Amino acid sequence: LGQSSKNFMKTNKTVLVTGSTGGIGLEISKILAEAGWNLILLNRSPEKAEKQLDELKGSFPDQDFYSYTANLMDLPDVAKAIEKIASNHSEISALYNVAGILTDRRLTSEQGYEGHYAVNVLAPYFITQRLRKRLSAASTSSRKSVVVNFASSAIMSVKKLAVSELTNPKEIGGLMGAYAKTKLAITIVSEFLNEELSDEGILTHAVDPGPTKTPMTGGGDGMPWIVSLLQPLLFKSPEGQAKKAVSAVDAGVSEGASGIYISEGKRKKAPAIVSDKEIQMELRKLLEDQIAEF
Fold this sequence. Notes:
This protein is an alpha/beta fold. The chain is built from ten helices and eight strands. It has helices at about 5-10, 25-35, 45-60, 75-90, 115-130, 130-140, 180-200, 225-235, 240-255, 275-290, and strands at about 15-20, 40-45, 65-70, 95, 145-150, 200-210, 260-265, 265-270. The protein has an eight-stranded mixed β-sheet, with helices on both faces. α4 (about 75-90) runs parallel beside α5 and α7 packs across α10. The chain is globular and about 50 Å long. It starts with a helix and ends with a helix. Mean pLDDT is about 90; it is low at about 1-10.
């Protein structure tokens, strides 16, 4: 990271990272820990989480690390974890919604929502909304808090988005199906949350880390065979992609920039559909109705 990034992150502030035990989430956690952040980690596997926690505490004994577990496909389980986090942490300066799934199999949550939607859209939206007060409390006039939602290059393949079909799509379709549409949806979430969160001192960034070598993209059941075959050539290391992502977020926060779309470390224009007000309103209503009871 550059000098400005180090200056920004050497603050002894607290960041919540979801999906921190593997892939790019693991590398982002390492970068933030090395920069002096205290970390709150939210993952599904208690065993992997405990291992990561032990390693972080051993490497950075002067910092604070906390681990919580929840099945992000199960909203009541997420609600329990977030209630604990909110109770134990009065201020959270950054939220990295990294956790996501990619598969060509149909997975359905206990609440009846398709798996990609539940994990890639509903969970990060719920976490953001329930931690707004903690994020706002950590914001200062010189340094705003930030919510970072992870998008994907796959969203460029989506030309139309039927919001009503997100929770139960007719087809899953792997990388270019439900995954791409839900990653587009979370990018739209970042866009429509921008105005209301900025009033509370919270910035929003949507980040496409770019093609990254992770267990999810390394021949998983949601990857087209040709893409899996070319993965060693086209996809980059999670370490490098994580550095670019964190550095770009750092620069945006340093400038107080919000509502920005970052792809492979560079600010770019999001697809036009992201700014569609009708789609934004429909998606917001869908999400609000679903989280209302929690």
